[in-house]
Amino acid sequence: MPANSKASPGKLRPLRVLLVEDSQSDALLLVHTLKRGNFGPAWERVDTREAMQSNLEKRVWDLILADHSMPGFSAPEALELVKRRNLDIPFIIVSGHIDEDTATAAMRAGAHDYVMKDRLARLVPAVERELREADVRADLHRGDDSVAGR
Question: Could you write out the three-class secondary structure of the chain?
Fold first, then answer.
């Protein structure tokens, strides 16, 4: 089912989510929030560069949710890994505390949005919007490929 389609009541929309998060309890809270938003997340949690690289290589992801700051790894580093692979995956920073300048810098670097952990009511609408926009970008890319005869 396309990410932007509306599931019938009681039917969860499948979603492959890579969680860049050092806290298992925070990861479970994010998964619970997605489930309440009518998503059926298949997810993996990573908290190191190596684990993220491995997961980007072995699977296709619909969404990346990243804690901004963790011991030894961070959302900006995770975003750089995604950009190096030239992947167009919605990347949303979910943080307990991030100041406006840091959030703005992350958006300029390519993050699609940020959500504060104490305002998770914003998470599902942000995910839905970013999945729709990723679908539009993919459609445009497919159109460019067909025009170019690829």
Answer: CCCCCCCCCCCCEEEEEEEECCCHHHHHHHHHHHHHCCEEEEEEEECCHHHHHHHHHHCCCCEEEECCEECCEEHHHHHHHHHHCCCCCCEEEEECCCCHHHHHHHHHHCCCEEEEHHHHHHHHHHHHHHHHHHHHHHHHHHHHHHHCCC
